[in-house]
Amino acid sequence: MTGPVNRRETPPAATARRLGRSTRVLLALLAALLTAVPFAVAWHFDADARAVSAQEPPPETPPGPAPGAARAVPQGPVVLAYHDIARHSGSRYAVTPEAFEAQVAALARAGYRSLSSDEFLAFLRNGRMPAPRSVFLTFDDGTHGLWVHADRILAKYRMKAAVFLITGQVGRHRPYYLSWQEVDRMRRSGRWDFQDHTHDLHHRAPTDRAGHEVPALAHHLWLPGPGRRETTREYRARIEGDLDRSLREFAGHGLPRPRLFAFPFSEATAPARGAAAPPGDDADAAAATDQTAGRALDEALRARFAVRFTNTSPRPLPAGARAVAEGQVQRLEVTRGTGTADLLAAVARWAPVPPAACPRPLTEPGQWQRTDGAGTTLAALTGTAARSGPARYVSAAYRPMGSADWSDYTVRVRVDRLRGQDNSAALVVRDHSRAPVTVSLGHGRVRVLTGTGTGRREVARRTLKPRSSHRLTVTVKPGRTVVLVDGSARIEHRSPRLRRGQATGGIALSTRTGRDGVLRPRLAALTVTEAAAPKAGR
Prior knowledge:
Elements lengths: L10 H41 L23 E8 L1 E2 L8 E2 L1 H13 L3 E2 L2 H10 L6 E9 L3 H13 L3 E5 L14 H10 L2 E5 L7 E3 L6 E3 L6 E2 L4 E2 L2 H21 L7 E3 L18 H24 L2 E4 L10 H6 L1 E3 L1 E2 L6 H11 L17 E3 L8 H4 L10 E6 L10 E8 L6 E7 L7 E5 L3 E6 L6 E7 L6 E8 L2 E6 L3 E6 L12 E7 L8 E9 L8
Parallel strand pairs: 1-5, 1-15, 2-3, 4-5, 5-6, 6-7, 12-13, 13-14
Antiparallel strand pairs: 8-9, 10-11, 16-17, 17-26, 18-23, 18-27, 19-20, 19-26, 20-21, 21-22, 23-24, 24-25
Helix pairs in contact: 2-4, 2-9, 6-7
């Protein structure tokens, strides 16, 4: 009888069976993958779309009047400071798209072109005007209105701009701030570049026990735990850590390293505007820490950036040699209340002009800025008004922004109606520089002084033949100032050794009266020419 048959599978059959199961598993995984990929891709694009707001087309602006004949004198670059471009905002720093469109259109019609940050830095390095008329458009904070509204407007007029990012706010508090995806699209357009506005120090914080708030970047802050202000070491570590974090954010998102920095609130080391000073000893401590903060902040910024920007400055710092010497450039701030005509007029006032373009300053009353805090006209300086009210001193500066880089020029002026010790007149050259020179002219004497305020000192004095009228000639050359009165009384003053740009500046005038009823001196026949050294006896 035959026994049962052993039906064990041969090795090839077992292998085939295992391969069949593996194939089915792989096919199932592949099917799942093919099903999931479209959903993943769709989710990715949906997330990206949510991070990129829809842009609005530029407003339709009626064509403006054709500009007049452009002056032969180059104008620019003037740095304009915007913040947000938004239609429904109550902030004075938000310009509507319609207003921005009108301003950009007017600049384009007037022949202005905009600069990139690289072009602006090249101008600061070599001093060569990049175009007959140019502006550098800057935007602080990085609001998403730049993508939604401003980008299409810039594209329409082929303009460029720079954005100063608060990197810690990018992608946060949407939709107020830009997202990193919007930043990337703006960068790739070629219209925008991005610069630094701190990582997370664009806010105010307490500086003392009473809670008085100051800009967090520029001041020592109060530490509630230990109950004291930061030490200089703590302050330095805080601000340097923030700046370095900001630079890492730029690198991490594929942006070039920023070379420009804008101060939050446009305040560097000065106390916050409107903040009450701490009482008693705290006021002295706050002043001392502000000074150390200023030095530490200056060192930290100079080590990381080529140029700093502010909208407020105790003396004019337009783009040019003086600003380069200080490492800081002043910007013309544009707000919701800035009209298009006002903007064009301000740009023209800020644009640098050579002395040769200003032969008769007294015929340009709109180019003078009263610096005595009273009045707006030149009547008190040109002698068409008697002294009235309590003011015994009147002063005005000529084109303080446009003349900031004057260095080789001669000024001639006639001073009339001088009367003994009762009145006097003065001409300032190198105005608002680090080495201003004041020539004070009276009835029988001339004085030369340097410095300003309580730091001003007399460096020379000459006795003159008493006259009610004198002719004054002052020539400004690098390193020296030459004074002539009536073509004979000569005084030469050697300026201290300063860096290029620190001793440049234009002119200012002032008059004084000593008692009631005495007419002010009259300033007349004021001319400015390219420098030509005066000779005694001529």
